[in-house]
Amino acid sequence: MTLCSHLKAITEIKTAKAYVCEECIKQDGTWLHLRTCQTCGATLCCDDSPAKHMTQHYHLTEHPVISSAEPGEQWLWCYKDGVFAEY
């Protein structure tokens, strides 16, 4: 597997502070799965969720790498390069 420069730059995985979408709880919304931004540590909902907050976060900030915040899942995704990696 070939890793992009964004994934190679990750030396420590940021984890969710709480198992909630930080934007959905402000808006009384719902989520299906959570992702954590590896640049700033924000935990937001995935594209299967109604609001798709993490993808919105990427488009606003250009923070390229997220991790799954789901229990038992250990993977990273780079939005910019479309690269997936398990850890």
From TrEMBL:
Location of the UBP-type domain: 2-87
Pfam families in the record: zf-UBP (PF02148)
UniProt name for this protein: UBP-type zinc finger domain-containing protein
Native organism: Chitinophaga qingshengii
